[in-house]
Amino acid sequence: MNDIILMKQGEIILKGQNKREFERKLISNIKRSFEPFGKFNIYSLQSTIYVEPIGNCDMESTLEVAQTIFGVLSVTRAAACKKDKDEILKIAEKYLEGELNNAKTFKVESKRADKRFPMSSIELSQFIGGELHNKYPHLKPDMYNPEFTVHIEVRDLAAYIHGPALAGAGGLPVGTGGKMITLLSGGIDSPVASYMMAKRGVQLIPVHFYSFPYTSVQAKEKVETLTKDLQKYCGRMRVIMIPFTHIQEEIRKKCPEGLLTVIMRRFMMRIAEQLANHHGCSALVTGDNLGQVASQTAEALSVSEECVKLPVFRPLIAFDKKEIVDIARKINTFDTSIQPFEDCCTVFTPQKPRTKPKLYEVLNAEVDLDIDGLVAEAIELRE
Q1: How confident is the model at residue 194 (pLDDT cuts 50, 70, 90)?
Q2: Percent of the chain with pLDDT over 90
Q3: Alpha-carbon distance 125 to 107, whole Å?
Q4: Can you tell me the distance from the alpha carbon of 201 to that of 152, in angstroms, rounded to the nearest whole number?
Q5: DSSP per-residue string spanning 52-64
Q6: Residue 174 domain flag
Q7: 107 lies in which domain range?
Q8: Which terminus of the chain has fewer CB atoms gathered within 10 Å of its CB, N or C?
Q9: For 211-268, what is each residue's pLDDT tens digit?
Q10: So what's the pLDDT on residue 1?
C-alpha cells in the first residue's frame, strides 16, 4: 500500500492551451510549500496533482498545508494499489478500517478513468460494497445520506482508495495573475483583500505606512505578523515599510482639516504606484469597502485614486462587514488585526472629515505641498 495525496485542480482545467503553464506554476508552488515536510515526487495527470512521499514524510502537516494552496479544488489522502478488484478490496478494508468500524451507514462510489479496467464503475462499487458489508456487518448501505463514503478511483497508473475529500483553497495558482502592490494597514480589511487577490493568482508585495513616534513599534510588528499569516496562502512576501510621519505633519500644517484623510490617501497611492513601477507590478490593491468610513464614499475613493494611472483593485468594495470578518477568521488574521495598536490613518483622523470631497478643492489644498519631494523622501527611507 502506498500513501499518497491527491490534489484535484480547480479552474485550471478550463484554461485550454494555457493549462500547462498554470499546472507548472501550481506544481512549483506545491513543491515550495511542502519542502519543510520531506521529499516528494509531485506530478500531474488527468487534472490531478499526485504527491508521493519519498521516505519518511510528515503527511499530516502536508495534508493541512495542501488545503491552503490556491489552484486546488479538493485534497485527499489516499492509498494507491494495483488495479485489481481483490487488491482494491484488501486495501480498502485495511486503509479505511477505523472509519468503517465507527460508521453506521456507508456507500461506495467508484470512478473508472481507465476504461481498460474490466469492471464498470457500478460493478466495482457493488462488489466492494457487498464485500465490505460482509466484513463489517454492522454497516448498513445508504445510497442517499451515508455516514461514510468509500471512494475508489481507477486511474492510469493505479487505483486509489480514500474517504471524503477535503475542500481546497480554490482560485488560481499564485503567480499566474501577475504582480500587484497591496496596501496593508494592519486592520481587518486589507489582509482579507490581499488574500482574495492572491486567490485570483496575483503575487503580492505588501506596503505599510507607519508614523513613528505617533504609532508604536508594536504596530509595525503587527503588520509583520499579518504578512507571515498571509504567506500561508499568498506565497513568499516581503513587506515594504514606508515612514509617513513627515508627510502627515506637512498635510496637517498646510491643508484644511476636513481634507486631511483624502490627501493622505492620495500620497499613499502615489508612493504605492512608484513602488509598483519599480517592482514591475500592474495594479494596486486596497481593502476599501464602500461606505464603511468617511474616506470610502464613492466621491472620496474617486478623488483618492485620481492621482495615479495604475488601476486600483478593491475586492471588498461591496462586502458586508460580517462577511469580511468571517473571512478574516477563516484565514486566521482576525486576532492579529484587532490588536490595539493604531496605524497612521487612525492617528491623524480629522474630527469632521469631508465625505464628498471635490477634486478641485483637493488640488487647491495640495498646492503648498512639495508632493514630489515628500514622495521621494518617503521612498528613499523605506525599510
Answers
A1: very high
A2: 83
A3: 8
A4: 31
A5: EEESS--HHHHHH
A6: no
A7: 2-169
A8: C
A9: 888 777 888 889 999 999 999 999 989 999 999 999 999 999 999 989 999 999 999 9
A10: 58
Both 165 and 290 in one domain: the answer is no
Q: Half-sphere exposure (CA, 13 Å, Cβ side) for 350?
A: 21
Pairing of strands 2-9, 72-81: antiparallel
d(CA 376, CA 237): 23
**What grid cell was written down for 80?**
494507491
Any residues with CB less than 8 A from the CB of 178 and at least 6 apart, and which? Answer: 201, 202, 203, 281, 282, 283
Q: Are residues 107 and 195 in the same domain?
A: no
Within 10 Å of residue 311's Cβ, how many Cβ atoms?
11
Section 19-46 average pLDDT: 94
Q: 198: closest CA among 64, 68, 292?
A: 68
Query: Locate cell 480514500: which residue?
Result: 162
User: What pLDDT does 216 receive?
Assistant: 79
Q: Please name which of 146, 139, 162, 357 lies closest in space to residue 260, comparing C-alpha atoms.
A: 357
Phi, psi for 333 (deg, rounded to 5)? -105, -15
Rounded-to-5 percentages of helix, strand, coil across the chain: 45, 20, 35
Q: What is the pTM of this model?
A: 0.91
**Euclidean distance between CA atoms 115 and 93, whole angstroms:** 24
